[in-house]
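Structure tokens please, single chain.
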Amino acid sequence: MEEIILLAGDIGGTKTNLALFSSQAGLREPLAEGTFPSADYPSMEALVREFLAQVDVSPHRASFGVAGPVVGGRAEITNLPWVMEETQLAEELNLSSVRLLNDLNAIAHAVPVLEDDDLHTLNAGVPDPGGPIAVLAPGTGLGEAFLTWDGSRYRTHASEGGHTDFAPTTPLEIGLLRYLLDRFEHVSYERVCSGRGLPYIYAYLKDNGHAEEPPWLAEQLGAADDPTPIMVDAALDESRPCELCAETLDAFVSILGAEAGNLALKVVATGGVYLGGGIPPRILPALENGRFMEAFSRKGRLSDLVARIPVRVILNPKAALLGAASHGLEAVHG
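Here you go.
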């Protein structure tokens, strides 16, 4: 088979990862890679041209995972003024084809090609070869997807499950829901189980006197554009523990576990549940303390079924890039 050079990308509002892959070399040996600050470029085309000017390789086609919905081959990137359209990109970049897919769909495409070093196991379970697989990715938002086996390979399916109604499972979570319903017309899982959502849990616990906010933390949060990393670091800091942040993270982990179990039940994910996104690798100690699996498995009559489902954290920060490349190479190999 003739060698095809694929340009793959993980296009985010903050940064863009690009890489070139050969159809003969595979996913683990990119010909070239680069990372670029997305906001520094007026368009995707300008960014790609700069990358290609730095390498001595000309791609034939491209596959991009993008942080935003893809409808009819067209995508608007979250937090960027870019509009991407498959046909236009192919023409302007002189490529035979361009494929766009949502970034969570890209992570789902990566799951079948991930290796042991890319993963951290929370629950070994009893994997069912060919069983459905669920993917949750808490990052800025909460992405969800799933995969099904068609007899020869896994097929990915997009989902907007992160926007379903938040269903509290403990008295604390019931109070959290009431607190948020006073402020928002709709309270979804993404509202509480994401980088944007964690500060709402913190605010609820602080306002209701669950723990005091230390002055040093208040100062740091007041100066921060994004308070979530500060809260996470304070929750996990053994030298200067913050009770309020620790309780916030515990609640977050329990909610994530419950929703992961919900998705596992909805697709009967006997092939496993995979946690992607930027948050899970950063909070491994909190995920391993038992709260996550307790909430994950607490499903009444089906608790035993859910407890047998493998659960893994995706550690590879370039999973979406691998998935976009896998998606593009699928088209090459048919």
